[in-house]
Amino acid sequence: MFQVFKKLDWFFKRYWKSYVFAIVALIIASAIGLIPPKLVGFAIDKIQFETLTMKLLVTLIAGYLVLIVVHYAISFLWDYTLFSGAAKLERLSRTRLMDHFLTMTPTFFGKFRTGDLMARSTNDLRSIQLTAGFGVLTLVDSSIFMIMIIVVMGFTISWPLTLAALIPLPIMAVVMNKYGGTIHKRFMEAQTAFGDMNNEVLESIRGVRVIRAFVQERQDEKRFAKMTDDVYQKNIEVAKIDALFEPTMKILVGLSYTTGLGYGALLVFENRITLGDLVTFNVYLGMLIWPMFAVGELINIMQRGNASLDRVNETLDYEADVKNPVSPKLVKQIESLEYDHISFTYPETEVKRLDDIYLDVKRGQTIGIVGKTGAGKTTLFKLLLRQYPGVQGKIKISGIDLNDINLEHIRSWIGYVPQDQMMFSKSIRENIQFGKADATDQEIYRVMDLAYFINDMKQLPQGLDTQVGESGVTLSGGQKQRVALARAFIKDPEILILDDSLSAVDGKTESKIIEHLRKERQNKTTFIAAHRLSAVTHADHIIVLEDGKIMEQGTHNELVASGGWYKEQYNQQQLENEEV
Questions:
Q1: Residue 395's beta-bridge partner residues?
Q2: Residue 304 and residue 345 in one domain
């Protein structure tokens, strides 16, 4: 049950001073809380034997008030220190998770779905925080505070009465242990179901246009209703065990009260304890209710926290497939880029996506990459971005193996515009500034002109401050592509990759953008992958991929003259354009 504390030892070692202070303050506050019942019992005995004077009464009341003030001050200190420490744990864990996500490769995100990762970053972290705060409180109260009460009851009143009142404790230990094992299992199932539901919601929001287009609203509602019902049922199973804790504790506490009152009255009649002692004993017994409840709460919280921590640690323990080199080499300037007989197979498949690719690119060249769908164009770029391990052959930048260069340096050189443009739920200005955080409006307007987006922006209600919505839902496909292009242009990267990034714009807009590219990208390397061959006719070198192999290569004129797939496709597209 206490494994969760061992798993969190890195945090407790870091903030041990705060926790020691909080626990010591809590123990002192608990000890102070044991004094008032003795004062009450003392006063009752004085009243019974008619020896209570006004001076003594005033002294007792004054002492009681002082104890209240001191108890309040110390309680504030331990409460603030303990629960602020738990909040730090949640903050640190969330930061660790976010840092971990940013270092992960596509393999990781293929294994863990977004909704489940969100559940681990929210609900599970909240359970862990509860463990580091309320869990520590219940641990101290269910052990040290309980022992303090029992010792005081035994030594100052009667050990036989104390032991008789504590008979239900062993029963409680057995029952609570059984409850704890069950709640751990059910809570894990409930959290997994919650993650699945989160993922379904995200997919529905992202795909709302497709859902409406295919009139799938009712079916989506049914799917969601089924998932929410599953989450509800699993949480009900957790709640059933939760609901057993309190009544079980009340029964056991009731037995203690009954024993204490009955046996205590007998001891009073036998003059073995005074009436004041019996009153004090019952007050202590009332105080013992919370520590006994705390045992149940402790088991509940520990099991929930342990289950959540296991899920979070499973995520954090997943090692990145691609890591920085131990002794990185420095590349001052990119003079060349070479794919030296590259072959690659995705981890989850056995089919080669690239097969013996050789490509030598000089600084300032524009490279066109064309081919059928699934030919390997995007894979070629993903390997340059070092998104996957297991590459056969070498990719070299200025003669240095890509694996010997820091990932941050590699990606800082590259401006990548993928097939599926990612728009953040911010303004157009903020989306473009993602490429350059301190970009001025003048710079933004310039790259928007390069991306042929100025006219579109004038029609938007708030110009640069227009919010694009979830994943750019308020923009058309062509507008999203051009905002993504502007975001890459403003970075002014050494290597610009356009992965079929002009597919959603018309031919006239495409030609304007290409014309701007040719002027702006002098002395810098550009890769353009496209299905429309008009996007690559100006390239210095064009390769045609088929099943991961280079089947043709050369300039546009050379490929047309060779009479292969490129010429056939080019003629067909030209004919289609004439018909249009």
A1: 339
A2: no
pLDDT for 549 equals 92
Residue 394's CB: how many other CB atoms inside 10 A?
Answer: 15
Tell me if 38 sits within 8 A of 274, measured CB to CB: no
pLDDT score, position 288: 80
Task: Say how many C-beta atoms besides its own lie within 10 A of residue 77's C-beta.
Answer: 17
pLDDT at 579: 56
- Three-class SS of residue 405? coil
For 215, the domain range is 3-316
Among 255, 288, 316, identify where a domain stops: 316
Which pLDDT score is estimated for 1? 59
**364: alpha, beta or left, given left = phi > 0 and alpha = psi -120 to 50?**
left
Burial 181-203, CB ≥16 within 10 A → b, else e: eebbebbbbbbbbbbbbbbbeeb
Burial pattern 38-74, b for ≥16 Cβ within 10 A else e, equals bbebbbbbbeeeeebeeeeeeebeeeeeeeeeebeeb
Q: How far apart are CA 422 and CA 218, in angstroms?
A: 28
Residue 458 has what DSSP assignment? Answer: H
The rounded distance, in Å, linking the Cα atoms of 495 and 501 is: 15
- Rounded to whole angstroms, the Cα distance separating 123 from 548 reads 44
Phi, psi of 163 (to 5 degrees): -65, -35
Residues 301, 269 within the same domain: yes
Residues of the chain with pLDDT under 50: 580
State the CB neighbour count (10 A cutoff) for residue 501.
25
Cα→Cα distances 305→87, 128, 388, 398, 436, Å: 14, 5, 34, 51, 41
Rounded Cα distance, 290 and 145, in Å: 10
Q: What are phi and psi of 395, to 5 degrees?
A: -105, 125
Task: Report the distance separating Cα 417 and Cα 132, nearest Å.
Answer: 44
- Pair of tokens at residue 28: 């002192």
